[in-house]
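Lecture 7 notes. Example A: sequence first, then its structure tokens.
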Amino acid sequence: MPRHTFTRPLIAIAMVAASSIYALAQQPPTPSRVRGTIEAVDGDQLTVKSRSGDDVKLHMTSDMLVVGITKISLSDIKVGSFIGATTVPGPDGKQNALEVHVFPENMRGTGEGSRPYDLRPNSTMTNATVAESVVSNDGNSLIIRYKDGEKKVEVSPDTPVVTYVPADKSDLKAGAKVIAFMKKLPDGSFETNRVSVGRDGLTPPM
């Protein structure tokens, strides 16, 4: 696959993943993404069983972009890697990583910065460059730097570490774990034009 055709969908996915959706006053927020398992694919309709147990039906647009998520090793995080890390504060104040995704080099700089995220309460997504890495029996302590600051992130041996790989609509099959980015239409239905799908049974952790 030519490099430029893969770069565009990956950048689009990462930019959407990095964005925050805020509720209108006195209205519940419309989900910006649904995480779950594909129940069925019927023509241009994707049915996802969300992690909360709801069945969500999504119209797949004709230009829908699909990227794969695959597991890599903690040792693949190097000084100089551009990563995304979802963290939550621990009782000791340390920022503990819920997941880390290593961006391919052609996505370096995507969504750089730190912002609230919706994976768990009080979670934050930070996209930044690894400046320092200290390896111990408890995992890695990473100093990651972005244009407005830096953060120390604790990555345990059990923290999921993943990266992006090429994928297409044929990878969207019943049983696959996905994150589908959603847009609510005027009639109340939902459509998606971007889906991240786990490879080899992987649940995308971000």
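Example B, a different protein, same format:
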Amino acid sequence: MVNSISAVRVGAMHRAVGAYATVALGTLAALAVMSVVAPRLATSEAWGHAVIVGVFALLLVMRSRAARGGSAAGLRAVVVIAGILTAANLVEAAIPGLFPSWMRVEMLAVAALTLLVMVLAVKARRAA
């Protein structure tokens, strides 16, 4: 069970996961709009990345909820998923010409959010 110290940290982590999920869903909405008004900015690569990020957002929300309920496995899963997402977004953002510039900025923002999630989850695990 999560003690009161880590419960505060898990709560902060859960809010950071919520911010990540909001960005992921906002990216999908932005792509939908761009598909109509500026199709060159809504490339198939951008769609593929955004859908994968959206799926991981749902997965992270579910695991974060489990961690918030006291699940050590949920907390461990958040650390692993957030770490993978951080690395993947940084690598993809660094590949020249693969994604539109706006999406590369979004990837860096997502990497920062997932790094924050990972740090908060690690701190919560240590306090548990």
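Note on Example B: The longest helix spans residues 4-37. The two ends are 8 Å apart (CA to CA).
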